Amino acid sequence: MTDATDLKPNLGRFGVWTAGPVTPEQAKEIEKLGYGAVWVGGSPAADLAFVEPLLEATDTLQIATGIVNVWASPADEVAASYHRIEKAYPGRFLLGVGIGHPEHTDDYRKPYDVLVEYLDALDAANVPTSRRVLAALGPKVLKLAADRSAGAHPYLTTPEHTAQAHALIGNAVFLAPEHKVVLARDAAQAREIGRQTVEFYLDLSNYVNNWKRLGFTDADVQKPGSDKLIDAVVAHGTPDDIAKRLQEHVDNSLADPGAFLRTNVVGTFTVLEAVRRHGIRLHHVSTDEVYGDLPLDDPVRFTEATPYNPSSPYSATKAASDMLVRSWVRSFSVRATISNCSNNYGPYQHVEKFIPRQITNVLTGRRPKLYGLGANVRDWIHVTDHNRAVWRILADGEPGRTYLIGADGERDNLTVMRTLLRLMDRDPDDFDHVTDRAGHDLRYAIDPSALRDELGWTPLHDDFESGLAATIAWYRDNESWWRPLKDASEAMYEERNQ
Questions:
Q1: Which member of 31, 220, 231, 288 is catalytic?
Q2: Cβ pair 48, 83 in contact under 8 A
Q3: For 204-213, what is each residue's pLDDT tens digit?
Q4: Three-class SS of 128-180
Q5: What's the chain's average pLDDT?
């Protein structure tokens, strides 16, 4: 067996699904491990009385029902319970709704119509679509979830189903697929444990039909379930094996990864061919995200020798573009350098980014938003210092070399948020915690020694707080630039419940 604490660095960025009730003590421990949300299984009573003790026992943990059964819990009672919880714990409760199983419901007639009527009743009771999700597997209910709620919570599914669901309803729709985890490295033992849960669902037609849509055969879905089926719906093995399997859901949910391929891979190839034909000096601007992330409690930093370990389609395609540049330097003698820079801040940064989003939220009367607990660490550098470093590399850098650009500005997101609010004369704790980003890298940190020692570059903005104050002033004075972008940006975050 694998101790659960072994999984914390990899799985703390995912939510937890529980098969049954959760105690306040368990909720505390789940939050302590770094999880951002708990989906409490079963079909709760309409009073949702279990929710408040869990929210009271925790600070930022999101609690979701999985799933309120439309046949058993009247919509008006559920709506009243939702408003009671929302009033006491704003923004921390998500209402999961579903139509159950025909095998467990005596009068299972026209379930889709009943679900639509239930959603109509929730609408009439002013339960916002942004705070409810539907249990959905098939195309019809998935489309309903996209139209009438924040999104869907498919249960006992696979990354392939996640990809198909996003192809059907779009990448902007919230999707929280449930994937079972068995903390056992031995495959036979893991399958034996997994079957104890999965076997029950082999008697339920909606799950069996969904697995058949995914290509599983009649033999696969016969009790107790084939190894192929169990391996598909139950992640097991080492912590890295399990994290990799769960990450497949996350990767499938990212919006249009093809855009990154076109821009970072095909685009870089096009530029490289142009500079090769015309003999032009090239500097390729990359990102520290190509290195993956670092532990929160380890002083190690990224260097030019750090192996690439990208964790998203964006960073993977940036890593590919770096490799293309290096191969054109070696194969075609292109005169090129590369830089990998840490997180930038300063003027003209899009309002969807962390710092300008919080500044413009305050300026427009919105509440600032912090992902999860805010423990993720970034190494901040002012954009003008980044620009100066690029010019220095263009002037004096050695072709074929990679230079890391950073300003020794490591700060966790919570500290940045509180500093920003204090500089804007707001209570440092006057913000909302929102669901953490899927696959949110833990820590970035740059070692810029080569740039400083070999090229003599140093940052001018070495005082983060003064640079942040100047950035706040810029956004305050330049609303005409960012205001047209703001509403659309926040609408995007609202669709993601962030």
A1: 288
A2: no
A3: 888 898 888 8
A4: CHHHEEECCCCHHHHHHHHHHCCEECCCCCCHHHHHHHHHHHCCCCEECCCCE
A5: 87
Is residue 289 part of the annotated active site? The answer reads yes
Query: Token pair for residue 310?
Result: 């990208």
Of 314, 403, 444, 475, catalytic: 314
As a whole number, mean pLDDT of residues 377-404 equals 96
pLDDT of residue 10: 35
d(CA 410, CA 407): 8
Q: What's the CATH fold of domain 257-495?
A: Rossmann fold (3.40.50)
pLDDT band at 2 (very low <50, low <70, confident <90, very high): very low
Burial class from Cβ neighbours inside 10 Å (0-12, 13-18, 19+) for residue 51 reads: buried
**Mean pLDDT, to the nearest integer, of 300-308?**
93
Encoded amino acid at 132, one letter? R
Range 469-482 average pLDDT:
94
**Can you tell me which residue has the tokens 């993956």?**
292
The domain 4-253 is placed in CATH, from the list 3.40.190.10, 3.40.109.10, 3.40.710.10, 3.20.20.30, at: 3.20.20.30
Q: Which of 140-144, 196-200, 259-263, 366-370 has the lowest mean pLDDT?
A: 259-263
Reported confidence tier of residue 4, pLDDT bands at 50, 70, 90: very low
CA-based torsion, 152, 158, 161, 165: positive or negative: positive
Q: How many CB atoms lie within 10 A of CB 130?
A: 15
Comparing 4-253 with 257-495, is the CATH topology the same?
no
- Catalytic position from the list 31, 231, 289, 322: 289
Domain ranges, ordered by start, for the chain: 4-253, 257-495
Return the closest-CA partner of residue 247 out of 437, 497, 36. 437
Strands 343-345 and 377-382, how do they pair? parallel
Which pLDDT value is given to residue 9?
Answer: 33
The rounded distance, in Å, linking the Cα atoms of 392 and 339 is: 11
**Cα gap 493→498, rounded to integer Å:** 5
